[in-house]
């Protein structure tokens, strides 16, 4: 029985080693047999089927996300469905061009040859998806893998079991199991998968687990795309539009209850506007989610922490900050029975607090005043390179200066998070925040091997071959002198 059907028949979401091995072997055999026959038309047909299946399961997806962490239906549509459906649409439009071999002009040294770069499938790929955007970050990479002509195994997160089941059902009814399969299970299942010689591994998760994935991949020399995270800083300059900044930051931070890898992690705000900005943040939180913890708890628009362990982790961050002198000037209210943590704003932050060192991944926003941008830039550069950096200011030179003097996966100017929705932009980090890129052509290339192809037409390279007579030596000397 293929593992993709387990959720349908109600078996436990745990996969045995034999099932994992047989599923992998079936994909390997099929991928070899599919070489040369997985055409543009066939790939587009698979993407069409995936799109249609997602749309048929829309109500199930919404219900599953609500069951897993009370994710609001509009947020599911905006952050789970739209990115994947848009990725499919964009890929179909451009796939013919991406697949076409690209002609490369001959250099002087190889005149008389014809050269191409030909993208080909890497083979059998593993997609390990996280729990925070469980559908989006499982099926989005799958679009790129299929577009590049690969087979794939998807390992959804066990922390969102209802959505994991829906993903398994979508895959089982959409694809032959030797093209795409879902394997459900916990960390032990992930370890068994990582021991296999996949041709490419696409992992989304924390930097700590990313290191484990990379170490496992190295044993098989599997290539990797690591979409990680970190502490994405936000800078609100002295000439920022305060209301606009507050609106964008509140949405980017508290959507999905702060459980977003590119959410603003902390905000540096210029001292001249700090009081106004803090009031604007409080006003915006009240407008969007309610002015009291009771209202925020009862609104249908506010997600929950995914489970009790993460609830306790985020609660501990707040307690640690308060115990070390931080001031909670909005929120801070928690309810363990519902995994509820109110949108929380914290000031008087110091470097010895856990919130200054750890990726928050929850509804906590430290607000730090500054009057010297050089010190802010130094602080950013003293830490691992973030996945995103956000800048709010009307002065373009203010933003340009920060962009040129820092390194990050992406930069948003007068916005947060929205760059994820642009299929024409690469999405990825730098070093600790990620390796490689996803989305659109960048995702297609991540799952492709770019094969060099050269054909001899009427080159004279053979004149430089041995035996190295005096004449050949003179030709080589001339070539080095002229071309070197």
From TrEMBL:
Active-site residues, record numbering mapped to chain: 227
Cross-referenced CDD domains: ALDH_AlkH-like (cd07134)
Every Aldehyde dehydrogenase domain range: 16-452
Ranges in coiled-coil conformation: none
Family membership noted in the UniProt record: Belongs to the aldehyde dehydrogenase family.
Alphabetized PROSITE patterns for the sequence: ALDEHYDE_DEHYDR_CYS, ALDEHYDE_DEHYDR_GLU
Keywords from the named record: NAD, Oxidoreductase
Domain of life (superkingdom): Bacteria
Protein name: Aldehyde dehydrogenase
Organism: Marinobacter shengliensis
NAD listed as a keyword: yes
């Amino acid at each position: 029985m293929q593992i993709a059907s387990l959720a349908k028949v109600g078996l436990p979401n745990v996969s045995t080693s034999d099932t994992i091995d047989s599923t992998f072997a079936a994909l390997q055999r099929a991928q070899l047999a599919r070489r040369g026959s997985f055409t543009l038309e066939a790939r587009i047909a698979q993407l069409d089927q995936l799109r249609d299946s997602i749309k048929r399961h829309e109500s199930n997806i919404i219900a599953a996300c609500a069951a897993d962490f009370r994710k609001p239906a509009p947020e599911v549509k905006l952050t789970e469905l739209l990115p994947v459906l848009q990725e499919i649409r964009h890929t179909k439009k451009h796939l013919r061009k991406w697949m076409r071999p690209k002609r490369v002009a001959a250099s002087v040294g190889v005149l008389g040859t014809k050269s191409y770069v030909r993208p080909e499938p890497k083979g059998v790929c593993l997609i390990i998806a996280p729990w925070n955007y469980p559908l989006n970050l499982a099926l989005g990479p799958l679009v790129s893998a299929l577009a590049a002509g690969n087979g794939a195994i998807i390992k959804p997160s066990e922390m969102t079991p209802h959505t994991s089941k829906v993903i398994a059902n979508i895959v089982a009814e959409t694809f032959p199991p030797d093209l795409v399969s879902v394997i459900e299970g916990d960390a032990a299942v992930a370890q068994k998968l990582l021991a296999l010689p996949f041709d490419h591994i696409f992992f989304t998760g924390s930097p700590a687990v990313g290191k484990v994935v990379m170490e496992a991949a190295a044993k098989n020399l599997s290539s990797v795309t690591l979409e990680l995270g970190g502490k994405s800083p936000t800078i609100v300059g002295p000439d920022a539009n305060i209301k606009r900044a507050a609106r964008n930051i509140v949405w980017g931070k508290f959507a999905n209850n702060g459980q977003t890898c590119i959410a603003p992690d902390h905000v540096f705000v210029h001292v001249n506007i700090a009081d106004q900005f803090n009031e604007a943040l409080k006003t915006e939180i009240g407008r969007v989610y309610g002015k009291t913890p009771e209202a925020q708890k009862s609104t249908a628009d506010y997600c929950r922490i995914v489970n009790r362990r993460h609830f306790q982790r985020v609660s501990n961050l707040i307690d640690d900050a308060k115990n070390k002198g931080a001031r909670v000037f909005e929120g801070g209210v928690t309810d363990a029975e519902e995994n509820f943590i109110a949108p929380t704003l914290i000031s008087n932050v110091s470097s010895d607090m856990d919130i200054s060192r750890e990726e928050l991944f929850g509804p906590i926003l430290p607000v730090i005043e500054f009057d010297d941008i050089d010190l802010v830039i130094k602080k950013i550069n003293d830490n691992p390179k973030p996945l995103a950096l956000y800048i709010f200011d009307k002065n373009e030179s203010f933003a340009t200066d920060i962009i040129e003097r820092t390194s990050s996966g992406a930069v948003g100017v007068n916005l947060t998070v929205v760059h994820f929705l642009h299929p024409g932009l690469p999405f990825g980090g730098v070093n600790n925040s990620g390796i490689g890129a996803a989305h659109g052509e960048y995702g297609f290339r991540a799952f492709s091997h770019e094969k060099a192809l050269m054909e001899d037409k009427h080159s004279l390279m053979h004149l430089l071959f041995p035996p190295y007579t005096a004449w050949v030596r003179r030709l080589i000397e001339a070539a080095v002198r002229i071309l070197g």
